[in-house]
Amino acid sequence: xxxxxxxGGRLVQAGGSLRLSCAASGDTFGTKFMGWFRQVSGxxxxxxASITWSYNSTFYPDSLRARFTISRxxxxxxxxxxxxNLKPEDTAVYYCAATKNLAYRDYRFxxxxxxxxxxxxxx
Length: 123
Prior knowledge:
Blueprint: E1 2-7, E2 11-13, E3 18-26, E4 33-39, E5 46-52, E6 58-59, E7 68-73, E8 78-83, E9 92-99, E10 112-113, E11 117-122
Parallel strand pairs: 2-11
Antiparallel strand pairs: 1-3, 3-8, 4-5, 4-9, 5-6, 7-8, 9-10, 9-11
């Protein structure tokens, strides 16, 4: 299994930017996608972005495509999420995840998860 450790979450004002990082280690062989998800207490985990392990193709929900950017540094085994023009509704715990399945946006098919990092956007 892949071990994932997120960092970078903090309190930020609306309109600001934030970059989250996720360091990956362990058995990364066969990984197909890495992704970011977010969750608000009492709500279902939401797809934020994903990227293919081999070719760095990226995927986003239409609602976040214009403001969020996922990227990966293969040399450092680190995943990033650049978030711009943040809004209060972006407040959530953000999770990094990895999967060896051919599923790029359904959290149920991601096997490895980080502990999450809190992002709070104040108005």
